[in-house]
C-alpha cells in the first residue's frame, strides 16, 4: 500500500490555487446535456473519476461525449438514451449512480447500474421504491447497487411519487432530472419536510432550468416537473466548493493567504457555507450543524482538532453512508494522531480540541478507507503535525486529482512510499 507523508511546511501557505470544477454540477450538466437533442459545450468542468464514469456511461448509451481540453466536455445527445450493451460501471460515484438509476427508466430495455465494492454498500432502495411507485420495473436485491431498471422508452408511467430522502438527497435530484423527459407533469413529494443538503436540490433545479426545464415549487416539500425535455446549451461550471474547503483550511491553519479565484459568497453549492464557520477558527462554535454542508464536515473536524475549545458536530447521521462511514473514519484518524482526540456519541462527532498539537511530531498512519475527503482533510493536520502518513493518497482522484500537486504548488513537501501496513478496513 502507498502512504504519503507530508513535511509540515513551517511557513504560511500563500499563492493562487483554483479548485477544479464542481463535481455535483458537472455530473448534473453531463446528464442533462446527454438527455437533450443537440450539442452542448460544458466548460469549467471537473475531469475526475466521478465525472469520467458519468461521461463513459453516457457514451455507452449512445451519447457522443468528447473532451477538447482538460476542463471541457462537448456532449451531443439524440434526445433518447439507448440501452447499453453492458452494465454501467460507476465506481464509487454516488451522483452518477443515483442520477443514472432514475435516467435508466427512460431507456427502452433493461439497464444494470453497478459500482465498486464501496458503492455496493451504499443504499439505493428508497430510489428503487420510488421508481416502482412511478410504474417503473426496478430491483436491487441487496438494497444497494447493482440495480436493474427496465424502462419502456417513455417517461415515468405515473405522475406523482413520494420519496424518502433521509439517506440521500441524490434520490430526489435523480427523480427531478428524469421527470422532465416524460409526456406529463410529475410531482415529486418529499416524505417529511426534512432533507439534509437541500442546497443540492436547488443546484439540480437550476441546472435543469439552464437546460430548458420548468420546475414548479408547489410547496416546501413538492416539486412539479413539467414535460419540457431538455434543450442543448452551452453551460459554464463553477469551481468545486467542497474542494475549496481544503484550501480554506490550509490557509487558516497556516495563517497564509490562498487565492482560490472565487469569493466564498459567490458559490451556489451548499458547502460554501462552511467558509463562514471555518473563518471563526480558532474559535469555532461549540456545536456545528453539518446537515447543510455535509461534505465539508471532515475538513472542519480536522480543523477543530486545533481549535481553542471542543466542537460537537450534529446533523451528520448520513455521513455514515457516504464513500465510507465518515463519522467513524474521522474519529479513528484523530485518535490515531492522539488518543482521545475525538469520540462518537450516537451519530454526533465530538472533537476535543488541542491547539498544542501544532508543532508536535507523532507516528500516525491514517486509514482513509479509500475516501478522498478523509485523505484530503487529514492532509491538513499534516501541515501542522509531523509524522502523519496518509494511506492510499491516490483516492483523491475521485473529485480532485490534482490535490497533491496543488499543495506542492503552495510549497508543501511530501514523500510517497510503499508501506508494509495494510489498511484495516
Ligand atoms: O447531489 C449532489 O451532488 C451531492 C449530494 C450530497 O450527497 P447526499 O445527497 O447523498 O447526502 C453530497 O454528499 C454529494 O457529495 C453530492
Ligand atoms: C459524498 C460524496 O460523493 P458521492 O455521494 O457523489 O459519491 C462526496 O463527494 O463527498
UniProtKB/TrEMBL annotation:
Pathway: Metabolic intermediate biosynthesis; chorismate biosynthesis; chorismate from D-erythrose 4-phosphate and phosphoenolpyruvate: step 6/7. Residues 1-20 are annotated as: Disordered. Its EC number is 2.5.1.19. CDD domains: EPSP_synthase (cd01556). Its main location: cytoplasm. InterPro entries: Enolpyruvate_Tfrase_dom, Enolpyruvate_Tfrase_sf, EPSP_synthase, EPSP_synthase_CS, RNA3'P_cycl/enolpyr_Trfase_a/b. Residues 10-276, 284-407 form the Enolpyruvate transferase domain. The active site is at residue 295. It is found in: Cytoplasm. Keywords: Amino-acid biosynthesis, Aromatic amino acid biosynthesis, Cytoplasm, Transferase. 3-phosphoshikimate binds at residues 23-24, 28, 168-170, 295, 318, 322. PANTHER family: AROM/DEHYDROQUINATE SYNTHASE, PENTAFUNCTIONAL AROM POLYPEPTIDE. This is 3-phosphoshikimate 1-carboxyvinyltransferase. The gene is aroA.
Amino acid at each position: 500500500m502507498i502512504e504519503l507523508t507530508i513535511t509540515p511546511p513551517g511557513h504560511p501557505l500563500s499563492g493562487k490555487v483554483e479548485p477544479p470544477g464542481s463535481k455535483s454540477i458537472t455530473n448534473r450538466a453531463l446528464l442533462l446535456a446527454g438527455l437533450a437533442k443537440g450539442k452542448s459545450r460544458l466548460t469549467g468542468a471537473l475531469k475526475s473519476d466521478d465525472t469520467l464514469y458519468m461521461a463513459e456511461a453516457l457514451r455507452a448509451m449512445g451519447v457522443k461525449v468528447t473532451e477538447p481540453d482538460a476542463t471541457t466536455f462537448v456532449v451531443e445527445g439524440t434526445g433518447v438514451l439507448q440501452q447499453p450493451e453492458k452494465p454501467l460501471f460507476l465506481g464509487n460515484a454516488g451522483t452518477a449512480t443515483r442520477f443514472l438509476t432514475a435516467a435508466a427508466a427512460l431507456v427502452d430495455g433493461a439497464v444494470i447500474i453497478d459500482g465498486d465494492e464501496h458503492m455496493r454498500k451504499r443504499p439505493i432502495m428508497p430510489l428503487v421504491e420510488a421508481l416502482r411507485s412511478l410504474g417503473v420495473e426496478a430491483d436491487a436485491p441487496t438494497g444497494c447497487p447493482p440495480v436493474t431498471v427496465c424502462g419502456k422508452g417513455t417517461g415515468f408511467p405515473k405522475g406523482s411519487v413520494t420519496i424518502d430522502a433521509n439517506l440521500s438527497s441524490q434520490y430526489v435530484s435523480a427523480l427531478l432530472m428524469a421527470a422532465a423527459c416524460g409526456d406529463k407533469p410529475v410531482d415529486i413529494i418529499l416524505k417529511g419536510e426534512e432533507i439534509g443538503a437541500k442546497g443540492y436540490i436547488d443546484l439540480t433545479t437550476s441546472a435543469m432550468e439552464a437546460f430548458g426545464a420548468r420546475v414548479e415549487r408547489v410547496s416546501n416539500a413538492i416539486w412539479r416537473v413539467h414535460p419540457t425535455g431538455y434543450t442543448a446549451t452551452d453551460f459554464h461550471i463553477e469551481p468545486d466548493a467542497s474542494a475549496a474547503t481544503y484550501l480554506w483550511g490550509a490557509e487558516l491553519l497556516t495563517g497564509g493567504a490562498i487565492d482560490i479565484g472565487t469569493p466564498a459568497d459567490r458559490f451556489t453549492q451548499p458547502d460554501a457555507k462552511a467558509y463562514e464557520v471555518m473563518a471563526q477558527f480558532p474559535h469555532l462554535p461549540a456545536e456545528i450543524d453539518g446537515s447543510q454542508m455535509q461534505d465539508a464536515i471532515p475538513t472542519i473536524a480536522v480543523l477543530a482538532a486545533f481549535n481553542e475549545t471542543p466542537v460537537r458536530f450534529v446533523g451528520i447521521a448520513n455521513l455514515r453512508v457516504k464513500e465510507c462511514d465518515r463519522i467513524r473514519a474521522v474519529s479513528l484518524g484523530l485518535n490515531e494522531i492522539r488518543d482521545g482526540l475525538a469520540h462518537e456519541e450516537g451519530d454526533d462527532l465530538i472533537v476535543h480540541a488541542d491547539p498544542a498539537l501544532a508543532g508536535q511530531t507523532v507516528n500516525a498512519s491514517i486509514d482513509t478507507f479509500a475516501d478522498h475527503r478523509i485523505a484530503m482533510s487529514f492532509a491538513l493536520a499534516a501541515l501542522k503535525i509531523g509524522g502523519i502518513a496518509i494511506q492510499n493518497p491516490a483516492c483523491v482522484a475521485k473529485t480532485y486529482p490534482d490535490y497533491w500537486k496543488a499543495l506542492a504548488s503552495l510549497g508543501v513537501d511530501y514523500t510517497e512510499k510503499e508501506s508494509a501496513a495494510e489498511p484495516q478496513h
